[in-house]
């Protein structure tokens, strides 16, 4: 199982996925509607119509048509997605195979004397006694020392030839894309997770209900209005008689 820090680093990927699933198709639908609307609004291109103010929109009119609540929300969500992509790109660490010959700057199959010579050369450059830089010290301990040990120590070399790493078999780590405060093994954050699930279910139900209600009002409201008009006309003809 992955550590809590690694689990927390996966949480932005989880949020990005949840945002992209509805946002990408919704954006495509909005763009297709805008293109079709623009195609239908094509008018005569003669000189008279081109000079007419009826077919010309000012820049303020175009901005006001674009600056709707849904469009601004859509732009804001895409900005958030861009920030998440930038953040994920900088926190993600690419897993690279352990190559001791490449680390020491040698060709595969180099002799023991060449390995020792390369190790001494890199020790002068990265050893903690020679270089006080913390990053250089970390690189020396995590890469140079392990690469030299993998090529000189019999046990480490056997592990490297079998498993591709001087420390032996490396297990596969699996992570959960949730923040650290939701993964408390003591159960102290169970209420937070339950509240999150309840809020998500409530929001989804409320959104679906509002969307259905607006659709019903939009469709059947016009039908009711048309029915009332027909009823009044029929009542008028019944009471007063039709006028021929």
From TrEMBL:
GO terms for cellular component: Sec62/Sec63 complex. GO terms for biological process: post-translational protein targeting to endoplasmic reticulum membrane; SRP-dependent cotranslational protein targeting to membrane. Residues 99-164 form the J domain. Keywords: Membrane, Transmembrane, Transmembrane helix. CDD domains: DnaJ. It comes from the Eukaryota. One of its GO terms (molecular function) is protein transmembrane transporter activity. The chain crosses the membrane at residues 12-29, 66-88. This is J domain-containing protein. It comes from Coptis chinensis.
């Amino acid at each position: 199982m992955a550590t809590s820090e690694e689990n927390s680093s996966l949480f932005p990927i989880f949020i990005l996925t949840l945002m992209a699933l509805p946002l990408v198709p919704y954006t495509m639908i909005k763009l297709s509607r805008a293109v079709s609307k623009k195609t239908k609004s094509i008018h005569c291109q003669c000189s008279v119509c081109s000079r007419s103010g009826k077919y010309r929109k000012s820049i303020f009119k175009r901005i006001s048509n674009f600056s709707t609540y849904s469009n601004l929300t859509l732009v804001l969500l895409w900005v958030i997605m861009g920030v998440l992509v930038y953040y994920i790109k900088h926190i993600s660490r690419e897993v690279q195979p352990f190559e001791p010959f490449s680390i020491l700057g040698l060709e595969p199959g180099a002799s023991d004397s060449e390995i020792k010579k390369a190790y001494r050369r890199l020790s002068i450059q990265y050893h903690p006694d020679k270089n006080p830089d913390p990053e250089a010290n970390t690189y020396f301990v995590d890469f140079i020392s392990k690469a030299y040990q993998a090529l000189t120590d019999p046990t480490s070399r056997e592990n490297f030839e079998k498993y591709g790493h001087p420390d032996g078999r490396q297990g596969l780590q699996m992570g959960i894309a949730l923040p650290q405060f939701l993964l408390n093994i003591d159960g102290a954050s169970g209420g937070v997770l339950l509240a999150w699930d309840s809020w998500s279910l409530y929001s989804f139900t409320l959104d679906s209900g509002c969307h259905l209600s607006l659709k019903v009002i939009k469709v059947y409201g016009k039908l009711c209005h048309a029915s009332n008009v027909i009823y009044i006309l029929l009542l008028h003809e019944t009471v007063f008689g039709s006028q021929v």
